[in-house]
Amino acid sequence: MTKKVLVTGGSGYIGSHTVIELQKSGYEPLIIDNLSNSDERMLGLIARISGQKPLFERIDLCDRKGLMDFFSRHRDIAGIIHFAALKAVGESVAEPVRYYHNNITGLLYLLEAMQEHDINRLVFSSSCTVYGQPEQLPVTEDAPVQQAVSPYGNTKQIAEEIIHDSSQQSKLRAISLRYFNPIGAHESGLIGELPLGVPNNLIPYITQTAIGKRKELRVWGKDYNTPDGTCIRDYIHVSDLAQAHLIALERLMKGENEKPHEYFNLGTGEGYSVLEAIQAFEKVSGVKLNWAFYDRRPGDVEKVYADTTLANLKLGWKAEKGLDEMMASAWKWEKNLAAGILD
Ligand code: UD1
After folding, report:
1. Superfamily per CATH, domain 4-182+237-267
2. What's the Rg (C-alpha) of the chain?
3. Known catalytic membership, residue 152
4. CA within 20 to 30 Å of 286's CA: 45, 98, 110, 149, which one?
């Protein structure tokens, strides 16, 4: 079987780490990305880690012609890992049409192209956001999908449904991976998260505050029903997450999937509060963080962490890296950015 794997959004945060894992296992990743939220210089850094610069084409998935043209030029693609999507919750509330267009139209064109070119394996980047605030924790894949609180979240739900329906009526075989909170950076410190502008997510905000790019970390809410009053999340190292994509793809390649469309939670199974995350960061970095409590952020769920039994059993995958390692790698990356690694 061919070793070519298309990675949409492969120059982005999780995509770039997955490209490294694919290369390490002898695959030939082909990247398409519109660079709307990533940087082409990431490709050079990938090459510094792996010794191979992956093929890259700047293509927007909503450019149907450009996409079809790509597939007619690149034959023998064994499978697709689909990351390319917009992902900022607040922005999606402000610009719903842009979010639905980008995330849904892009997926539909991709599925059409897959059908046309007889490519039948898809790993999809989904999110624990589909569970909303689950009634039972840790949350299993059987928990009901809840009404999304943002257009972003809704695009993940709709995308799962589209993939599901399509897999029932075609040769499509798909795995949706529901990520909890991906953080950290590659152990080399050469690739990591590159937020555009002011970060929304906790860990880049922490590291940017520590390095002096931001004045103060605002901790959203101190009166949640949790031991220290702050929200609880299941943080997972991006390299562990990347590894799971490779395993999921190989499951489809080997025909080991039990249904046309499967879903797996990807987390560590451990929940940590915002204050625990700050403490872990301060411990591993030796930097005292400037932070203060603020009001709750609209749309935040109180606590969510994964039951990972299904991924452990069926994929034979388990997250290995703990919170300290996640924080240390995120900090190493932030320091490398400050030292001009992209210049
Ligand atoms: C968010 C999205 C989720 C999406 C993910 C990836 C929401 C409700 N969820 O996850 O759907 O898949 O991003 O983009 O937005 N926090 C602070 N101060 C900050 C930033 C965050 O206190 O400056 C807190 C939050 O309140 C939360 C925790 O840190 O309790 C994690 O926040 P974040 O990193 O933004 O991730 P989620 O909100 O869990």
Report:
1. NAD(P)-binding Rossmann-like Domain (3.40.50.720)
2. 19
3. yes
4. 45
